[in-house]
Amino acid sequence: HLQILDQDGMVMEEWTSGPIPHKIQGKLTAGETYTLREKIPADGYALAKDIEFTVNRDGSVNFVEMTDDTTKVRIYKNAYQGSDRGMKKSSPSVPEKAAPIKGAVLQILNEDKTPAMFEGREMIFTTGETFAFLERKLTAGKTYWLHEVKPAPGYGYAEDIKFTVSMDGKIDVVVMEDKPTKAVISKKDITGEHEVPGCEMQLMTEDGEAIERWVSGTEPHEITGKLEADRTYILTEVKPAPGYAYGAEVKFTVNHDGSANRAEMRDDVTKAEILKIDGSSKKPLAGAELEILDET
Q1: Residue 165: closest CA among 48, 240, 70
Q2: Is 26 left (phi over 0), alpha (psi -120 to 50) or beta?
Q3: Which backbone phi and psi does 21 adopt, to 5 degrees?
Q4: CA Rg value for the chain
Q5: What is the β-pairing status of strands 105-110 and 121-122?
Q6: What is the pLDDT of residues 40-82, one digit of tens each?
Q7: 3-state SS of the chain: helix, strand, coil percent to 5?
Q8: Strand-strand pairing, 210-215 and 121-122
Q9: Buried b (16+ CB within 10 A) or exposed e, 111-134
Q10: Are 5 and 31 in contact (CB under 8 A)?
């Protein structure tokens, strides 16, 4: 949307650009200076700077050309660095040690959270080994949300990030960070006070797929960047430590945002009551020396 203004700021002509140049005949004063101003750029283009021009005194044609830059947005999907989870920067820079995440599915939403469209399609894309570059796809001055449809395997979902496209064509940088999923698994005695080492443990999906197998130690077992956010897993005991009974299976669902899950299984000690009785009277018999042997 363009305007011609005189030196007093009065609008002399106003129109929306088309596929051919716009002509103004018999309306402007020879020798006077005017300003060509862009009020609203076309979608995908930045707002151009004002152009001043002076109408030729001899009535010859003035050719005035205004060039629009394109809108440009770089989107980075990185592993969580311990700072703000999402940010918008005015300069194209990201942390030097940033670790790009490949395989996350992202989407651009309008400010009201409806899907943003480009050429009749929703703007959904999968991250690669570097940034995603959106040129001439977003509207200058308009506010959008960067939304995560599905994180890469082993990562949690990030919060939506709000950003506004620059009016002047500068590169906008949007950084979204994901936390790796983390499960801290404890094998404790029945009191819940002490870790029980020597138990053979296994983590499975609800479909029975084995994810990880280990032997418990004196510290909780950690699984980082391996489990899927919002998915439920089952902790089972394959073999308890000597002197302990099997613990009941434990189900837990991995947190949506990648924050740490804590799962705990408790084992009771094994117990056996042995009574030596007289074969005739069936009364307890004292003084007998007994021995317990294993199967071997």
Answers
A1: 70
A2: left
A3: -60, 150
A4: 35
A5: unpaired
A6: 899 899 989 999 999 999 989 999 999 899 999 999 999 987 7
A7: 0, 40, 60
A8: unpaired
A9: eeeeebeeeeeebeeebeeebbeb
A10: no
The Cα 98–Cα 133 span in angstroms is: 17
Strand partners, 221: 185
- Longest CA–CA span in the chain (Å) reads 138
pTM: 0.79
- Token pair 């004002």: residue: 50
Give per-residue pLDDT as tens, 5-36. Answer: 999 999 999 999 999 999 999 999 999 999 99
Residue 296 CA to residue 292 CA, distance in Å, equals 12
Would you list the DSSP string of 201-255? EEEEETT--EEEEEE--SS-EEEES-SPTT-EEEEEEEEPPTTBPPPPPEEEE--
What letter represents residue 90's amino acid?
Answer: S
Structure token pair of residue 265: 């299984």
Q: Beta strands of 43-115 (E only): which ranges?
A: 51-54, 72-79, 86-89, 105-110
Q: Give the C-alpha separation, 136 to 120, whole Å.
A: 14
What is the number of alpha carbons within 13 Å of residue 41 lying toward its C-beta? 26
Give the integer Cα–Cα distance in Å for 45 and 140: 6
- The three-point CA angle 204-207-209 to 5° equals 45
Find out whether 137 and 39 touch, Cβ atoms under 8 Å.
no
* Rounded CA separation 161/176 (Å): 7
